[in-house]
Amino acid sequence: MKLVKKIALFATLGAVAPSCIVVAGNGVSNQELSKGQNKQAISPTLGGKLFTAAWMQRSAEYQALCIQSFDWAKHRLADIIAKHQGKPLAIVTDIDETIIDNSPNAVHQALKGEDYTDKSWDEWCDRADAVALAGAVKFFNYADQKGVKVFYITNRTERNRKGTMANLKKLGFPQVDDASFLFRGDTSDKTARRNEVLKNYDIALLLGDNLGDFDHLFDTSNEQERLNAVQKFENDFGHRFIVLPNPNYGTWEKAMNGGYPPLKEKDSKLKSLLKTY
Predict the structure, then answer these.
(1) 10-26 burial, b for 16+ CB within 10 Å, e for fewer?
(2) For residue 79, how many C-alpha atoms fall within 13 Å in the half-sphere facing its CB?
(3) Gyration radius of the chain's alpha carbons
(4) What is the C-alpha to C-alpha distance for residues 216 and 18, in angstroms, rounded to an integer?
(5) What separation in angstroms does the CA of 205 have from each of 12, 30, 174, 210?
(6) Which H or E element spans position 155?
(7) What pLDDT, in 10s, does the model give residues 76-114?
(8) In terms of CATH architecture, what is 60-273?
(9) How many beta carbons lie within 10 A of that of residue 226, not counting itself?
(10) pLDDT of 23-47, one tens digit each?
């Protein structure tokens, strides 16, 4: 999908009147709009998906934050390599919103008036059209040149393997081979897959956008438990853990909503939980 050029928000989450978003410009035709909401009010949740996707796709600040993260990862890796003794070094990285940008899928769904679906996600993965985050390809090729093994631990499933590998190969990421990818099995918890890596490697760095990419304690649906875990691992952020910004989705949503309720319930929770005046 082309980028949406204008997003006009006529929403106030605390208001009684329904929130609405009008989307216009070269990115979306009237015909496309008629297939979805046809300029009718859409949910605050889906409006948020559009607006955060706009930030990811169009803002210089997002580019800068990604470059900053990967540049710091390079400095950390160089320091670790210089001091390391032991098993061979590896980097463990998530894929989605850590090294590639999938926001077009969120836009595609929101403009249809729909939340995430497995069907739409699989179709997006098969397209192999995601772009790399700024600085990502450069960093991972640096690691590869230094002899560091890269493991892509993702909660994409095996049915997404072909499109995922084609996408990363097209973008120039290194070590795009079957052995380097650990896809989701029965659980989204990545602990077992990280432990597989630890059998033969010392993990120098972990990269992710969702804190569950670093430790299973962050997979909880309890917001306070997630905040407590941040305090527990505060010395690891920026040292072993490199966090990429993702305002569009994540386990934080699951924790805020107490799971994955229907869209209408998500909207209600969003209005009731946000601070206002």
Answers:
(1) ebeeeeeeebbbebeee
(2) 10
(3) 20
(4) 38
(5) 41, 47, 16, 15
(6) strand 149-157
(7) 999 999 999 999 999 999 999 999 999 999 999 999 999
(8) 3-Layer(aba) Sandwich (3.40)
(9) 20
(10) 444 445 445 545 554 456 779 999 9
